[in-house]
Design a protein that fits this description.
Blueprint lengths: L8 H9 L4 H12 L9 E4 L17 E5 L4 E7 L6 H14 L14 E7 L11 E4 L15 E7 L13 H11 L14 H10 L6 H35 L2 H23 L5 H8 L3 H9 L1
Parallel strand pairs: 3-4, 4-6
Antiparallel strand pairs: 1-2, 2-3, 5-6
Helix pairs in contact: 1-5, 2-4, 2-5, 6-7, 7-8, 8-9
Length: 297
């Protein structure tokens, strides 16, 4: 038995955003946001992903979004590539979701909280070893909340999770393990069989449930991501090398930034004919204006 990689966006949305994913998503969000407590009893998946083949390497659907029973919106995103300005993009997308709730003339009292849950396949915060980080607005010195949390940012950094199967204790442990290790498993681990929603997730992730076209599309996406990771790593290495040659710290930083930007531009040029500006911007970290300028070259 083989399972598709939930870190690939196609698979992630199939597992957590399809029409039959509601109980899976409730369990997953309770684990990631509320420490495994059954806080979320019901939700609505917004624009649920339908298992249809999408154009080659082009995402025409949104990240998984859900509206909780109390009206709060949760944005769930799986990010594999550590692209430039990714942290700013998370803040921007969250703030945009919050601010566009109202139509002209509506009162601010109608605003509902927005939670951005971001799972990364890279380390976001080098100075901290916790797997899950939870941010809200607080007073800087005395650390009391600005208001009841209206905007929350939650990050799950998969590389920081190192527990083995026999060490999984909580619902959170089991879901993070699933996200990180599902494609390397051949059977559903016994320690995870007690959670029916995780069993359902494994069932959806079973490769035998994909038709040949879907499987080919998934494999193409995996190859594409591996290629881009290699290009980004090469850009970082070249940037560091240039900085070392200049022999100064400022040269190192400038070289790193230059190398990463040049590689991002190289990737963008390759994608001009297959992706739209917004998707290229999301993939490379370049601005939409940068992409428009490339199209005019």
């Amino acid at each position: 038995m083989r399972f598709i990689n939930p870190k690939i966006e196609f698979a992630f949305k199939r597992i957590f955003g399809s029409s039959e994913s509601k109980p899976i998503l409730i369990s997953f969000l309770n684990a990631m946001i509320y420490d495994g407590n059954p806080t979320i009893a019901d939700l609505e998946i917004i624009d649920p992903y339908l298992a249809l083949r999408v154009p080659y390497l082009k995402d025409s659907y949104l990240d998984v979004k859900a509206r909780l029973a109390g009206g709060a919106t949760v944005i769930i995103e799986m990010q594999v590539l550590n692209v430039e300005s990714f942290a700013k993009r998370v803040v921007y997308n969250t703030a945009k979701t919050y601010s566009t709730q109202l139509i002209r003339g509506e009162g601010y009292f109608k605003l509902k909280p927005v939670i951005a849950l971001t799972i990364t396949d890279f380390e976001m915060f080098d100075n901290d070893r916790e797997v899950i980080s939870h941010f809200v607005f607080k007073e800087k010195k005395r650390l009391f909340d600005y208001v009841d949390p209206e905007i929350e940012l939650i990050f799950i950094e998969l590389p920081k999770f190192n527990k083995q199967l026999d060490e999984l204790e909580t619902l959170t442990d089991k879901w993070v393990y699933f996200m990180k290790n599902a494609p390397s498993l051949e059977v559903v681990p016994q320690t995870m069989e007690t959670v029916s929603e995780i069993q359902q997730a494994f069932a959806i992730a079973n490769e035998t449930n994909l038709n040949p076209e879907e499987l080919a599309d998934l494999e193409a996406r995996e190859r594409y991501i591996l290629d881009q990771q290699g290009i980004l790593r090469k850009g970082i290495e070249e940037g560091l090398a240039q900085g070392r040659e200049e022999g100064r710290e400022e040269g190192r930083e400038e070289g790193l930034a230059l190398g990463m930007r040049e590689k991002a531009l190289e990737i963008a040029r390759q994608l001009i004919n297959v992706l739209d500006n917004q998707t290229i911007s999301k993939t490379t970290g370049l601005s939409v204006e940068d992409i428009e300028n490339l199209r005019e070259e």
